[in-house]
Design brief:
With about 375 residues, the chain is an alpha/beta fold. The protein has a seven-stranded mixed sheet with strand order 5-4-3-6-2-1-7, with helices on both faces. Helix 5 packs across helix 7 and helix 10 crosses helix 11. The radius of gyration is 23 Å and the shape is globular. The structure holds guanosine-5'-triphosphate and zinc ion. Pfam families: GTP_cyclohydro2. Its EC number is 3.5.4.25.
Length: about 375
């Protein structure tokens, strides 16, 4: 497990990682922080064909979906590798110039998942290698380059989110919810931390407590970004829960629907050129929503909560919690205000992901009519 954690960090630092698997496996590097020097070094270590690995989402967005499946490997001539990497790291209109695309191998699939877990852009350079022959073998032996096994990676991914540990807690009076307690959970792999905010005295809660399951949004929650409705939802949830005598808010480390802040900002850049929130994510290589809620269900279980009224407009959250064994006794709408900056985002959520936002649009229309 420790080795996979190091692999995530190495990729984030722009270092190469060897993923052992089919034949000799591949030496992989993240495209987003590839430099000429790193590329040259990698080509000196591994002697096989260099390819660019892209997720199926991105392949589809680029019209390369013939082979999509779990992702594609596009062979790119050495001479144009750097240029291709730079273009792909930017997003739009960046098609790999190579012509031979094939579905990714299982090892390459795990490599793409590593990039995603590291909240990097899921686009990699992969150079096939034969560690018994290439210089790479010596580097691996000396510990200069980390070599991981694809099965090891798969097991790590399958286990994450399932065993969050309760680490520490404290009373933190909040404005509008003075009797509040923060409980911090850390996922077993040590990577992500989530907070359960327990509002009020559980002995005096309504029989079925309200639950707000909120995904982190630095821009909205902290700075009041007008591009989304997160900050307003967060604060109104705390107030509403406190007002009805208490309940729970889970603050989950799932920035940008799970793609991370760096990618969310990249996606905002693409949205400014006319793509909607989902198409922008897809062009970067992500699905509509990359979040999983197993960790939320495990936190609820630890808190002894099995039945809730969920504050959300997102049908996906209800389905996911139910699938994880939490009984959803009812749904409460939770709205922010519509404005000219968040209108495209809310419209895409309603039209493409089926979020229940009719009231937000109706309220806004009514306000407009009164003016
Ligand atoms: N990728 C991406 N994420 C975004 C964008 N705008 C906001 N987000 C993220 O979307 C998530 C919204 O979280 P929530 O408000 O809990 O979830 P929701 O799916 O909107 O559902 P409810 O608010 O419960 O109805 C946060 O993680 C934000 O950071 C965007 O344009 N792109
Ligand atoms: Zn937001």
């Amino acid at each position: 497990m420790q080795r996979i954690r190091r692999a995530l960090i190495d990729l984030r630092r722009g270092e190469p990682v060897h993923v052992a698997g089919e034949a000799g496996g591949s030496l992989i590097l993240a495209l987003e922080n590839l430099t000429e020097a790193r590329l040259e070094q990698a080509l000196g270590l591994a002697s096989g064909t260099p390819s660019v690995l892209l997720t199926a989402h991105r392949a589809e967005a680029l019209g390369l979906d013939g082979h999509a499946g779990d992702g594609i490997a596009v062979a790119v001539p050495e001479a144009s590798l750097m240029e291709t990497a730079r273009a792909l790291a930017k997003g739009r209109d960046a098609e790999p110039t190579g012509t031979t695309a094939r579905p990714v191998t299982d090892g390459e699939r795990q490599a793409l998942e590593l990039a995603r877990r590291a909240t990097l852009l899921p686009a990699l350079l992969a150079i096939e290698s034969d560690p018994d022959r290439d210089r790479l073998a010596g580097e691996i032996q000396r510990g200069e380059v980390l070599s991981i096994d694809r099965g090891e990676a798969r097991r790590f991914f399958a286990d994450s989110g399932r065993h969050p540990e309760r680490v520490s807690e404290a009373r933190v009076p909040l404005s509008g919810a003075e009797q509040s307690r923060f409980i911090l959970y850390r996922e077993a792999d040590g990577l992500l931390e989530h907070v359960a905010l327990v509002i009020g005295d559980p002995r005096q809660w309504p029989t079925t407590p309200a639950l707000r399951m909120h995904s982190a949004c630095l821009t909205g929650d902290l700075f009041g970004s007008l591009r989304c409705d997160c900050g307003e939802q967060l604060r109104s949830a705390v107030h509403a829960i406190a007002e009805e005598g208490g309940g729970i808010l889970l603050y989950l480390a799932q920035e940008g629907r799970g793609i991370g802040l760096a990618n969310k900002l990249r996606a905002y850049g693409l949205q400014d050129t006319g793509l909607d929130t989902m198409d922008a994510d897809q062009l970067l290589g992500f699905g509509e929503d990359e979040r999983r809620y197993d960790v939320a269900a495990a936190m609820l279980d630890d808190l002894g909560i099995s039945r809730v009224r969920l504050m959300t407009n997102n049908p996906g959250k209800i389905a996911a919690l139910e699938a994880a064994g939490v009984e959803i006794a009812g749904r409460e709408a939770i709205h922010g205000e519509l404005n000219r900056h968040n209108a495209p985002y809310l419209t895409a959520k309603a039209n493409r992901a089926g979020h229940w936002l009719e009231e937000v649009f109706a309220d806004s229309a009514a306000d407009g009519n009164q003016r």
